[in-house]
Each structure stands twice: as C-alpha cells, then as structure tokens.
C-alpha cells in the first residue's frame, strides 16, 4: 500500500537541528494520519506521499519549511508580580499574542522582577535534519479520520 490521504502511517523518525541537537531520537516509532491533518510537517508529508513500507529518506528543512521563522514581536516582558508563584524558566502557559489570538508562551528568562515570555514555537527559526523510514502503512479507520489522528500502539491512546 502506498501512502495517500487517510492512511495511518508508522515511521521511525529522527530529527535533529543543524547544531546536531537531537529533538527526536527515533527509538519509539510514531504513527500519524496522512493527508493534511497537521500531524506532521507538511513538507515531510509531501515527501512521503506515494511511498511504501521500506522507504527511507532524509531531508534538510529550512525554518520556513519546518516550524517557521522566529517572530521577535512574539517575545513579551511581563512583571513577575503578574504571575502566580512558582513561575520557572522552561514553563509554558496559555496567553495571547499581539493580535489577541491564543498561543502557548514559553518562559525563556526571569530577570529580576521581569519575566520574558516567547510565543514562538520552540523549533521556530531552526533548520531541521530529518530522516524517516516507513514501517507500516494501512487505511485509517473512520474513527481515526473523525478524530484527525491515529489510534493504537504508536498513536493516540484514549
Ligand atoms: Zn482519537
């Protein structure tokens, strides 16, 4: 079976950044629903379209093809007194961006009475080195398509 829309695909996926920092080590296979459900970077889905079990590939994705360029306007400084106690570097919270849309903000720095929050995706601005091996391809169930993700051992368990 070749990968096409509404296939459940299991991959061995390794991802690192251009500095060699490992983001995903590939030890545990991952399953995703193919066909633009936002489970996988679109560029990677494009590269896997039409491939079958046994296919292996590796790609270098620019930030624009991966998680986008960094947007410095998404970095905000907030007074520490506006936070509940226990705010920590690396912590994440839901907040609002400059346009009022909801986004996940990461605490990047605490500088005296100020907390610096970053609304960029943690991988924004990074060039990613990705390798993938296709381990399994099957038709997704109607329930998986309705949920927009794959169930089972390497997918969602609920
Ligand atoms: Zn589900």
Task: Describe this structure as you would to a colleague.
There is one protein chain. The chain has 158 residues and is mainly β. It folds into two domains: 7-67 and 124-147, Chitinase A, domain 3; 72-118, Thrombin, subunit H, CATH 2.40.10. Helix content is 8%, strand content 39%. It has two helices and nine strands, in the order E-E-E-H-E-E-E-E-E-E-H. The strands form two sheets. Strands 1, 2, 3, 4 and 9 form a five-stranded antiparallel sheet that branches. It has a four-stranded antiparallel sheet with strand order 5-8-7-6, with no helix packed on it. Strand 7 (102-111) and strand 8 form a beta hairpin. Bound molecules: zinc ion. Zinc ion (ZN) binds at residues 147, 149, 151, 156, 158.
Secondary-structure topology with pairs:
Elements: E1 7-17, E2 22-24, E3 30-33, H1 42-48, E4 56-61, E5 75-79, E6 92-96, E7 102-111, E8 114-118, E9 128-139, H2 142-147
Antiparallel strand pairs: 1-2, 1-3, 1-9, 4-9, 5-8, 6-7, 7-8
Residues 147, 149, 151, 156, 158 line the site of zinc ion.
Annotation keywords:
mainly beta; binds zinc ion; Chitinase A, domain 3; single chain; 5-stranded antiparallel β-sheet; Thrombin, subunit H; 2 helices
The average pLDDT value, as a whole number, equals 93
CATH class of the largest domain: Alpha Beta
Number of strands: 9
> How many independent structural domains?
2
SS field, number of helical segments:
2
| β-sheet strand percentage | 35-45%
Shape assignment: elongated
Concise overview:
By secondary structure, the chain is mainly beta. It has 2 helices and 9 strands; from the N terminus they run E-E-E-H-E-E-E-E-E-E-H. Strand 6 and strand 7 form a beta hairpin.
